[in-house]
Amino acid sequence: MKIRNTYTLKVTLLIILCSHILSSYGQDMKAGFAMLESGQFQSAEKFFGKTLTDYPDNKTAKLCFGRATGLSGNTDAAIQIFEELLQEYPGDMEVRLNLAEAYLWKKDGKSAVVDYLSIIKQDSTLFAAQLGLANSYSMTQNYGSAYATIQTAIDLDPNNQQAALSRKYITLGLANELASRKHLYDSALTLVDKNLKYNPKDQESLQLKATIYLIAGEFESSDDIYLQLSDTLASIKGQSLTAHLLEDNELALNLADSLVSMASIQKDTSKIMDAHLHYVTALLWNEKISIAGSYLDSLSNLFPFSPEMIATQAQIAMYGADFKKGSKKYDDYLALMPKSFGGNLGKADAMHALGLDNIAYQYAFRTLTYYPGQKDAANFIERLNAQHSPQAYAGYVYTYSSDGSVSTGYQLEGKISLSPRWSTAINYQQKHYGSKIAESGESYIESTGLSLTHQLNATIKLQAAYGVSKLQLSDTMRADYRSRLNLSAQLLISKSQSMTIGYFSEIQDFNQALIQQKLKVSNFVIKNSFFWKESNLGWYSELYRSYFSDGNTKNLLFTSLYKNLTKKPAIKAGINYTIMNFSENKPEQYYSPKLYNQMELFTGLMYNKLPVDLSWDLAGGFQMVDGMTQPTWRTKLALSKKIGRLNTEVSGAYSSISSSQYNGFSHLELRGQLTYRLSDKPIFFKRIASSTISD
């Protein structure tokens, strides 16, 4: 909320001037005084200019001419007039007060503070000086000093209405600073309530109180305040916003529709336009993206161009996942409104969505430069920090198959971002194998690996990984070493489509029987994903061509069509289909059907309103293996909890679908994992924080 600075001391003007009027000119200048008093500054400038032609040495006429000149907008000329008067009348308190006030007219609060402090040092009982100093502090946004000084001014003149008005806006300024920059919400609300004690229906105080409740996340309290506003448009718009924040987007849209109807009877075009643009935003909250776009297009034919229309175009693009267009529109908007909060943070969000976090950081920092302490910008930077801070991972897994095979394993990994677009990770894992049925001894695999990831540009992300695995089949056999390679490129094709093209090699290590085959597989894969946001419909596919070290080959196509049904809790459902075939059927060695088909219906649930976050997947269907049909089902339940920088998760999964592993057996898997952020900030934070984007 922008707090207005008040600094013109018109109430005391005539008192100061009249005491210095020469009696011989008193009648001649009454008309000029009246012009100054009523705000007719240009007329007053002409009047006193003419007076000075006749009486060039009249100090009062010079003062009034300087005031009229400055209040007409020519502040530099006014300052020059007062400086010349001060040379003529060194140390004159009246001239010094006018010169200090002229700096306020020029919006040069720093110079005004210097002059007023000099005056008060000489005489601290001057009401006009204390009031001027308070307003000067307010202009420089030093609201703490302004608040203390305005109290001193009021003590000198308790009934002065100009001081009371200044106290109101200074109090609002301090309250806004405490809430938005320092997040001291209770202290801010206490200050606003002091204003409301003097005037319980003061609209600006009520609006700021509603805003503080919004920033503090107390949306119901904010809604209660919006209901008290006499400005119907502000009241309805505020209620619509709180309805959205309380997750009732249908009500938010209905209120936005009422806002448009109420605004249509206004004569203020800007208010009408603001109501229409809020309605567009409410459409986006309800994911009516194409309707919002068409509605905005119709507005461009009815209303004159405004920067806010470009900002809304950017907003529509972002909701529609067209991040490239959103970024371009934010560029257009910032070219017109370089210090816009929504423009700078919106640009940061677009860059993050495109993977260009180096630029996202800079726009977020610039947002905080213009709006120090702003909560949304600070939280955005914290999310980037959480993603790029050094992390350590530890995981444990236990697997039991229906053939009696048992495996246990653990994995350790460290990840570090070298820059917002470069990251690397190193991992180590061991996996031990045995059987509850056969006395075959224990085998294990020990692996190490190193990976490197690079966000090349807004459309291409590259990844490379290399590792070495040590296979130990028994204590008496010599260890066997195998290398692994992983190369992939993730491509952003359009706002609705992304694709991954890659190659990876692996060792078949699901159970002890597979390890003994020493099978190494080279896989070429294409993954393709479509998601149409407005319809919440997605289509995901994977295509594999695999070459086994024993000469066998495999083709596999997996495709899934799904729909997001609800947001909170997040529920989706869909259908999966898999077709797979091997060139050679080797059932005695590993699961390798000539033809495999599998179809299933699935649903997924994510819920975060419990003490722990819950994720549950359930699927059922049937599979046809070389002409034989059988039912299948699978399920997975995961519980996770974040405690400071530590993320914990435990999960359990069961599957009877033979395609999920090469051995063809159903299996149970239990897993636990910990992820810990080693620091609050990434290693490159200081470097990127020092870089800036020029306006």
Describe what you observe in this structure.
The protein contains 24 helices and 16 strands. The chain has 695 residues and is of the alpha+beta class. Among the domains are: 182 residues, Serine Threonine Protein Phosphatase 5, Tetratricopeptide repeat, CATH 1.25.40.10; 289 residues, Beta Barrel (Porin), CATH 2.40.160.40. The chain has a 16-stranded antiparallel beta barrel. A hairpin with a 4-residue loop joins β8 and β9. This is Tetratricopeptide repeat protein. Keywords: Repeat, Signal, TPR repeat. It comes from Reichenbachiella agarivorans.
Descriptors:
single chain, about 700 residues, alpha+beta, Serine Threonine Protein Phosphatase 5, Tetratricopeptide repeat, Porin, about 30% strand, TPR-like_helical_dom_sf, Ycf3, signal, TPR repeat, TPR_rpt
SSE blueprint and pairings:
Elements: H1 10-18, H2 30-38, H3 41-54, H4 59-71, H5 75-88, H6 93-105, H7 109-122, H8 127-139, H9 143-156, H10 161-180, H11 185-198, H12 203-216, H13 219-226, H14 232-245, H15 249-263, H16 269-285, H17 289-302, H18 307-319, H19 323-336, H20 341-353, H21 357-370, H22 375-388, E1 391-401, E2 405-419, E3 422-435, E4 443-455, E5 460-472, E6 480-492, E7 497-507, H23 512-517, E8 520-532, E9 537-548, E10 553-566, E11 570-582, E12 596-607, E13 613-625, E14 628-643, E15 646-655, E16 667-677, H24 685-689
Antiparallel strand pairs: 1-2, 1-16, 2-3, 3-4, 4-5, 5-6, 6-7, 7-8, 8-9, 9-10, 10-11, 11-12, 12-13, 13-14, 14-15, 15-16
